[in-house]
Amino acid sequence: MTSLDPAIADRLKRTADGLVPAVVQQHDTGEVLMLGWMDDEALSRTLTTGRATYWSRSRQEYWAKGDTSGHVQWVREVRLDCDGDTLLVKVDQVGVACHTGDRTCFDADLLPLALPSTGPSTESSTEPSTEPAGGAGA
């Protein structure tokens, strides 16, 4: 049995294994550090200790980030997404986040895009418009 607040537990949508993905982000820069998995107990430990705790799918055990490496994640806030199926954990990361020694788990590979960018041109002006709301002459 877990000590997770039932009001929080009732809002979670879990995988068949009882897990919820947790996107981990550096609280002050917005940098995405890693993806971990939490069950109710891991989330409860995270919320009550202030240290990010995950369920290791490979080792089948709980791990508080930094217990062996010293690279602790001090939790600043935890958010639940609109569907209840993903957590956002904002942390103050001590040292590197990835077990490979990279700052983040997303530093190693940038995959090539096959399609041209469809976003706004980098040459367009970023200056705010001085035109009155509603257009000229409105």
Description:
A hairpin with a 4-residue loop joins strand 3 (53-56) and strand 4. The strands form two sheets. Strands 2-1-6-5 form a four-stranded mixed β-sheet, covered by helices on one side. Strands 3-4 form a two-stranded antiparallel sheet. The model has no long low-confidence stretch (mean pLDDT 89). The chain is mainly beta. It is built from two helices and six strands.
So how many helices? 2
Share in helix: 10-25%
- Main-sheet strand order equals 2-1-6-5
Strand % is 25-35%
Arithmetic mean of pLDDT: 89
The structure class reads mainly beta
Low-confidence parts: none
Instruction: Return the string of H and E elements.
Output: HEEHEEEE
Question: How is the secondary structure organized here?
Answer:
Elements: H1 6-9, E1 20-26, E2 32-38, H2 40-49, E3 53-56, E4 61-64, E5 73-80, E6 87-93
Short description:
The protein is built from 2 helices and 6 strands; from the N terminus they run αββαββββ. It is mostly beta strands and 138 residues long.
Name the descriptors.
138 residues; mainly beta; 4-stranded mixed sheet; two-stranded antiparallel ribbon; 2 helices
